[in-house]
């Protein structure tokens, strides 16, 4: 994964400003490059950390939330045929898919912290994050898919295929 600027490079005022901005409703932001960069950096850092975790630990042992059992059960009840190993963008982003995902996601509004934060998800579970293999989804969609991947064994080969990437200092 590419080297990137850290939050520390923004300074105290920049970080405080970003934190304040990130707490405002999403509808109030239109084409603000600084905010988009903060979201992208946060999503990237989350993806990098999660992938390194998959490379280092048996995914079947991971607990991503205190509600993993519920999230997994509800995912499979709502999307019994969803192939979490290799997703298609339209299964998450088409108008029809959004109508089905919306109630699923909103169910976790008071259960999962930051349930609707933008989070990167790999489309193909056998590959690393890349521009071609990543899609932006809500955090609860990420949790649901990755919990299923971990439980169903889709992430088990990651440790054989990839090694953790050491964090670089800016």
Q: What integer is the average pLDDT?
A: 82
Number of domain units: 1
Q: What overall geometry do the principal axes of the alpha carbons give?
A: globular
Number of strands: 2
**How is the main sheet built?**
2 strands, antiparallel
Sequence of secondary-structure elements: HHHHHEEHH
Helical stretch tally: 7
- Rg over alpha carbons: 17 Å
Query: Can you tell me the CATH class?
Result: Mainly Alpha
How helical, in percent, are the residues? 40-55%
Strand order of the largest sheet: 1-2
N/C terminus separation: 14 Å
The name of the CATH superfamily reads yst0336 like domain
Measured by DSSP, the beta-strand proportion falls in 5-15%
- Unreliable runs, pLDDT <50, ≥5 residues? 1-12
Q: Could you characterize the architecture of this molecule?
A:
This protein is mainly alpha-helical. It has a single domain, classed as yst0336 like domain (yst0336 like fold), CATH 1.10.3560. Helices cover 48% and strands 6% of the residues. The protein is built from 7 helices and 2 strands. The protein has a two-stranded antiparallel sheet. Helix 3 (68-78) packs across helix 6 (139-152). It starts with 10 loop residues before the first helix and ends in a 9-residue tail after the last helix.
List the helices and strands and how they pair.
Blueprint: H1 11-22, H2 33-56, H3 68-78, H4 90-93, H5 95-107, E1 118-122, E2 134-138, H6 139-152, H7 158-161
In short:
The chain is mainly α and 170 residues long.
Keywords:
single chain, yst0336 like fold, two-stranded antiparallel sheet, 170 residues, 48% helix, globular, disordered N terminus, mainly alpha, 7 helices
């Amino acid at each position: 994964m590419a080297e990137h600027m850290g939050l520390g490079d923004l300074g105290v005022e920049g970080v405080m400003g970003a934190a304040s901005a990130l707490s405002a409703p999403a509808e109030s932001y239109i084409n603000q490059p600084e905010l988009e960069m903060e979201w992208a950096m946060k999503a990237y850092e989350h993806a990098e950390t999660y992938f390194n975790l998959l490379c280092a630990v048996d995914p079947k042992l991971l607990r991503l939330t205190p509600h993993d059992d519920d999230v997994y059960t509800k995912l499979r009840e709502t999307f019994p045929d969803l192939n979490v190993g290799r997703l298609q963008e339209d299964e998450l982003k088409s108008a029809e898919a959004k109508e089905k995902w919306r109630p699923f996601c909103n169910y976790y509004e008071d259960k999962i912290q930051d349930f609707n934060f933008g989070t990167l998800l790999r489309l193909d579970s056998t590959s690393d994050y890349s521009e071609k293999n990543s899609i932006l989804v809500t955090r609860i969609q990420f949790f649901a898919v990755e919990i299923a991947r971990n439980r169903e064994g889709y992430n088990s080969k990651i440790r054989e295929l990839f090694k953790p990437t050491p964090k670089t200092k800016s």
